[in-house]
Amino acid sequence: MTPTTPAAASAAVARPLTLDLALLTAIVGGWLMDLGYPDVAWWPLTLLGTALMIASLRGRSIGGALLVGAVGGFAYYGMLIEWLTVYLGLVPWLALTLAQVVFTALGGVLVTLAWRWVPRAWPGTAGRLILAPAVVAAAWTAREAVASVFPFGGFAWGRLAHSQAEGPLAHWAAWVGFSGLTFLLAWFSAMLVAVTIEREVGMLRRGILVAGASTALLVWPAVPIAVTGTTTVAAVQGDSDSGLFADYEQGQILQDHYDATRTLFDQGLELDVVVWPENASDLDPLRSEHAASVLDLVSERLAAPVVVGTITAEGDETFNSVLLWRAGQGAVDQYDKVHPVPFAEYLPAREFFYPLAPRLFDLVPRDYSFGERDTVIDLDGVIAGISICYDIVDDDLLARQIDEGAQLLLAPTNNADFGVSDQSVQQLAIARLRAIESGRTLVNASTVGASAIVLPDGSTLDSLPLFEPGTMVQEVPLSDTITPAHAMGRTLEWGVILFGLLSVALAGLLIGRRGRALTRVHDMPDGPR
User: Fold this and answer.
1) For the chain, domain boundaries
2) Which residues are bridge partners to 476 per DSSP?
């Protein structure tokens, strides 16, 4: 029979894990989640790891949820962003990991409350196997959404959606966006936990539920993308030693990218644009005649404008910029990075933070200003959106690019600070999902790799090996399709968050009301009737 009371619902599922076993499960879950991201990219392991993390939070006290959430979060983020130690050392890695641990611990409490209250408030089979996992997934999504924007713009790296860039579920990004895809993945993972611990419903019915959900996720069609034209792009990887602590002569990074580009001279190419990476010119061509002459030469020889990353200045302000350079005209358009990276490109509240660790924050000697220009450039009628490096994780920036008419996405980046680590391929995975989400071709041009041209369906049109100079020359499709993900914007994300919070709150109220009613019955003179 289907249970109809909270007590019956509790008896219909397996007992929670002990705290010791829950801690071990959270650690294993965090490790498996990391393996779903590039470079390993075994995407099903992220689903399994998420299920283990979610299972470890079931049946915990508030203190236990904080502890298990913190331990699981440390295991996950500690391994995922290990690349931060390559040049910057342990302290920045530990600080960023612990910042994320705070969110995973608090999010763990919300997940625990969802497990505790929802099946008791709605004790039927649907409540235990469908509704409770959905509320758990909403709690997970809420934690991820907050951590992605707060504080100082948040850290939107390692979202569940990012693990699916090379898997068969990536096409969902165009339907529901990153937060929507995270919700679907967390819901499926929580459902795996729910059917595993279920004792009342037969194995066959549980298997049908999982098979049905899996099939729906896999066979749902991709968003159709209309091609409105093409443009020919040459993207350059200079393999320059352009890291924070690199020892190079002024102009060397510019020279490296010129040397890689001049292999295209005299090939008779008909190009529409040449794309150089972030920081590809270590001399600002707006202030350096040498840099300006080099870009003039490249633009003239290839008969195309050059998109080039450099550091610009305006009065007392410094910007991480991308210029659109034309021979004989100079910079005809410019994008300044809208959201510089906190504690890397600027130090928030410098007066407060700097005295706490002067030697550490000497690594951030200057504060880049926040750009206020639009996010697109005009390539003779083709509108290209610009994302500089970490910009690629910013949901709102992508939305601005599409709203401003982007038909193509350019993502110049400098990954030299992270050596031979997973950072660059993790970033490319995020960029791949952006191409799918937006329905646009994306050109990811890095100083050292990973450089690739990604089509709107997420497939790779061209790519370059890591740490080798090279070029990619391709005719790429353009599109002005508005995907469902863009049309909804953050509406779905807010809807999921409100659904989760209201469901947990309502479940708590219902349980409290039933408890008070039962107490009144037992307090009657003749006892319960």
Assistant:
1) 6-222+488-521, 230-477
2) 231
Question: Residues 229-281: pLDDT tens digits?
Answer: 999 999 999 999 887 777 788 999 999 999 999 999 999 999 999 999 999 99
For residue range 456-512, what is the model confidence (pLDDT) as tens digits? 999 999 999 999 999 999 999 999 999 999 999 999 999 999 999 999 999 999 998
Describe the chain by its helix, strand, coil percentages, rounded to 5: 50, 15, 35
Nearest to 449 by CA among 429, 428, 430, 431: 428
Residue 34 and residue 42: Cα distance in Å, rounded?
9
Residues 6+ apart with CB under 8 A from 199: 11, 12, 13, 14
Architecture of domain 230-477: 4-Layer Sandwich (3.60)
The two beta strands, 376-379 and 382-386, are antiparallel
Give residue 203's identity as a one-letter amino acid code: M
Task: Tell me the pTM.
Answer: 0.94
Residues 6+ apart with CB under 8 A from 314: none
Instruction: Name the 3-class secondary structure at 354.
Output: helix
For the record, the structure tokens of 72 come out as 């699981």
- Token pair 């926040």 is found at 370
